[in-house]
Design goal:
alpha/beta, 17 strands, eight-stranded parallel β-sheet, 23% strand
């Protein structure tokens, strides 16, 4: 296992690339009144955390709300070329998810619905074609037809918030699904020892696993096994951060999930339950946790938060020598952002 650094050191990483961001620092993409100003403010808040490329992630909601937020994201990109650079697309998580408690997580069961290629077309019209990833449950009616239609349009389909039979996982991959959203989460607390859909997703070479290394979503041993099973390049890190990331401990009312409890260690759960309600850490903080708790070389962990997600988006140049950069000071307690460059512009300087 890579030992935590005993002395402070400075490093330069490629800018972090996060495929799943619901919000951060009190800024909520899934609030009913989310607008372009909020999107711009969120982008700048993420720059301060070292994230230079991200997919704003919209969760299950009435279609009218999804369309309004997609228009707001497109407007934010038109206003600011650096924001446009940092937002190469959108991830829509839902609404075609499993409605059972456990698999659906914090998604509002009232607004879950079967996948609809017509709705995808309306999303693309509202967002100027920005939808790049859609998460769905492959057991929903019409899922395979949707996967084929979406992938034919260049949209990646990810399996998540689901409880499919193993055969349904393989059928989804054969239809074109290529990702697994926060693998190991968004399912029942207990599954059959075998077979189950987690083993099927890990065994499916056509799926790249997105995992959340925040110390809350997956224990270190489980995440270690996931990374080894998907080696060398079928696993990427995401934050799944939400607006309450960084909030003080307590109970909060949110547009998504209702009452959410923030524990002393930053874990976010639906109040009164053990069900997770997103992540309370940025991708930089997730990488800090991974560096201290997982038995992999630092370069491999960094690649899971930079090179690999960038390649999935067709943006490999962003993590090259001339791409976006983040300078960090790393110590035993974690990391601190010193400077961030986006598209050749210094956007953060300590």
């Amino acid at each position: 296992m890579t030992s935590p650094a005993s002395t402070t050191r400075q490093v330069s990483y490629p800018g972090l690339v996060d495929l799943q961001v619901n919000g951060y620092g009190g800024l909520d993409l899934n609030a009913p009144d989310a607008d372009a100003d909020l999107v711009i403010a969120l982008t700048r808040a993420l720059w301060a955390e070292g994230t230079t490329t991200y997919l704003p992630t919209l969760v299950t909601a009435p279609e009218a709300q999804l369309l309004a937020t997609l228009r707001a994201i497109a407007e934010a990109r038109r206003r600011d070329p650096l924001v446009a650079h940092s937002i190469p697309g959108v991830h829509v998580e839902g609404p075609a998810l499993n409605p059972d408690d456990g698999p659906r997580g914090a998604h509002d069961v009232r607004h879950l619905r079967d996948p609809d290629l017509g709705e995808l077309e309306r999303w693309q019209e509202a967002s100027d074609g920005l939808v790049r990833i859609v998460t769905l449950a492959p057991e929903r009616d019409g899922a395979l037809e949707y996967i084929r239609g979406a992938t034919a349009q260049g949209v990646r389909v990810s399996i998540g918030h689901c409880a499919p039979a193993p055969d349904q996982v393989h059928e989804a991959a054969a239809a074109g699904a290529s990702l697994a959203t926060h693998l190991g989460n968004g399912t029942y607390p207990q599954l059959p020892r075998h077979p189950n859909h987690l083993w099927a997703q890990l065994a499916e070479d056509r799926l790249t696993a997105m995992v959340i290394p925040d110390g809350h979503h997956l224990p270190a041993d489980v995440l270690t096994v996931f990374l080894r099973a998907t080696a060398p390049d079928r696993c990427v890190f995401t934050s799944d951060s939400v607006a309450l990331a960084g909030a003080e401990p307590g109970e909060y009312r949110t547009p998504v999930g209702g009452s959410v409890a923030v524990s002393d260690d930053g874990r976010l759960t639906l109040a009164g339950t053990d069900l997770l309600a997103g992540s309370g850490r940025s991708l930089r903080a997730c990488l800090d946790w991974a560096r201290e708790h997982l038995p992999f070389e630092e370069a491999d962990l960094v690649a899971a938060a930079t090179d690999r997600p960038a390649s999935l988006l067709g943006l490999a140049e962003r993590t090259g020598p001339e791409g976006d950069r983040v300078e960090l000071e790393i110590s035993r307690g974690g990391s601190r952002v010193l400077a961030v460059d986006v598209a050749g512009h210094r956007v953060v300087q300590e």
